[in-house]
């Protein structure tokens, strides 16, 4: 999944666009709270071992230090916000 990253104070905001069906983010955890807002399409969101389907207008909240993953069931877009600001995404510095 690809998109743009904006830093807003102590939050980071990612707009994921053009997520193709089948694209995924591997299972991982981090000390930041993370909120996913699905704009279009459907995602399979797994949080703490429980998987739910999230469609347009759905929000998924990932508590800090909780294992989670996401898989695009259809093409779509989502907005993702982390708090506090993540200093790296996928091993790449956000500074």
CATH architectural group: Sandwich
Please mark out the parts with pLDDT under 50 across 5 or more consecutive residues, or reply none.
none
**Number of DSSP-assigned strands:** 11
CATH topology: Jelly Rolls
Helical region count?
A: 0
Question: What is the N-to-C succession of helices and strands?
Answer: EEEEEEEEEEE
As an assembly, this protein is: single chain
Written account of the structure:
This protein is mainly β. The chain has a single domain (2-83), classed as Jelly Rolls. Helix content is 0%, strand content 63%. The protein contains no helices and eleven strands. The strands form three sheets. It has a five-stranded antiparallel beta sheet with strand order 1-2-9-4-7, with no helix packed on it. The protein has a four-stranded antiparallel beta sheet with strand order 3-8-5-6, with no helix packed on it. It has a two-stranded antiparallel sheet with strand order 10-11. A hairpin with a 2-residue loop joins strand 5 (43-47) and strand 6 (50-54). The two termini are 21 Å apart. The model has no long low-confidence stretch (mean pLDDT 83).
Write a brief structural summary.
The protein has strands at about 1-10, 10-20, 25-30, 35-40, 45, 50-55, 60, 70, 75-85, 90, 90-95.
């Amino acid at each position: 999944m690809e998109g743009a990253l904006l830093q807003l104070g102590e939050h980071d905001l990612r707009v994921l666009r053009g997520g193709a069906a089948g694209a995924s983010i591997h299972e991982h955890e981090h000390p930041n709270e993370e909120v996913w807002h699905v704009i279009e399409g459907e995602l399979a969101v797994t949080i703490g071992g429980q998987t739910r389907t999230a469609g347009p207008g759905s929000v998924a909240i990932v508590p800090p230090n909780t294992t989670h993953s996401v898989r695009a069931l259809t093409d779509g877009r989502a907005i993702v916000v982390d708090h506090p600001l993540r200093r790296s995404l996928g091993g790449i510095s956000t500074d």
